[in-house]
Write a structure and sequence with these properties.
CATH superfamily: Tetratricopeptide repeat domain
Largest sheet: 2 strands, antiparallel
Strand order of the largest sheet: 1-2
CATH topology: Serine Threonine Protein Phosphatase 5, Tetratricopeptide repeat
Number of domains: 1
Distance between the termini: 45 Å
Number of helices: 5
Shape: flat
Length: 99
Amino acid sequence: MQQQKFEAAITDLERAVSLNPDYVIGLNNLGTLYRFLEKNDKSREMSMRVLALEPGNEIAIGNLALLIPPEHLKMNKPQLRKGWRTRVTKNSMVSMVSY
């Protein structure tokens, strides 16, 4: 039942975004819904579209961060001591970089 509601919401949001491609709220919502449905490529695409329109958009960055596989989040002690943060790159990847 919930998946049917998500699919209906996606249909409505895709229509809204087709009418206004710069509709950041709609793009963010699509990214979130696609993530819930485990359509990770589509979720990543929507989040990257948001970031192209609004660099630093926290919702899009959060959606991308949630798409990072857990095994990529494990850091060793030297990395933790050095200090690491996430960075969104132009090729749709979220990477860990030192600072």
